[in-house]
Design brief:
Biased composition (Basic and acidic residues): 1-10, 19-32
Region (Disordered): 1-32
Domain DUF559: 24-128
Helix content: 25-40%
Distance between the termini: 56 Å
Number of strands: 8
Protein name: DUF559 domain-containing protein
Shape: globular
CATH class: Alpha Beta
Length: 154
């Protein structure tokens, strides 16, 4: 007797993942190693708690992993510790993400722990299109990627 094909909740047969097993394993490892700031912010972002927007953690994008990503709005949220101050590798990473059509918001981990509400309000503003240009401040970096529809920027 032949075995039945496994089904997903939607009733369709399981499809193989489009991501490599190595990237899946690395993303899982990164999720398991949450620092306190990442765990705090994830509690605000998961289960569509922030404005109904869906976020995922440690999403692979090219050679990088985004701390948090809202795919529908093409927004990446990164939390940085002091080791990231004036990091040229972070700037290259931001430009790569922008090239993939994602805007990138960077916060200091400390700010998430001390000013969680302000951080969430800023993320919500970016999601709702209230931030529409690059912003560089001591406590925030926003790299804007204009959303494209039909081949033209909005």
């Amino acid at each position: 007797m032949a075995r039945a094909e496994p089904e997903t909740e939607r009733g369709a047969a399981c499809q193989p993942s489009r991501r490599s097993p190595e990237k899946i394993a690395r993303a899982r490892e990164l999720r398991g190693g949450d620092n306190q700031a990442e765990g705090t912010l994830w509690n605000e972002l998961k289960a569509r708690r922030l404005g109904g927007y869906k976020f995922v953690r440690q999403m692979p994008i090219g050679p990088y992993f985004a701390d948090f990503a809202c795919r529908s709005q093409k927004l990446i949220v990164e939390l940085d510790g002091s080791q990231h101050a004036e990091s040229s590798s972070d700037r290259r990473r931001d430009e790569f993400m922008r090239g993939e059509g994602f805007s990138v918001l960077r916060f200091w981990s400390f700010d998430v722990l001390k000013n969680k509400r302000s951080v969430c309000e800023t993320i919500l503003a970016a999601l709702e299109g209230q931030l529409a240009e690059d912003v560089i401040a001591p406590d925030l970096r926003f790299v804007f990627a204009a959303k494209k529809t039909g081949g033209s920027a909005l």
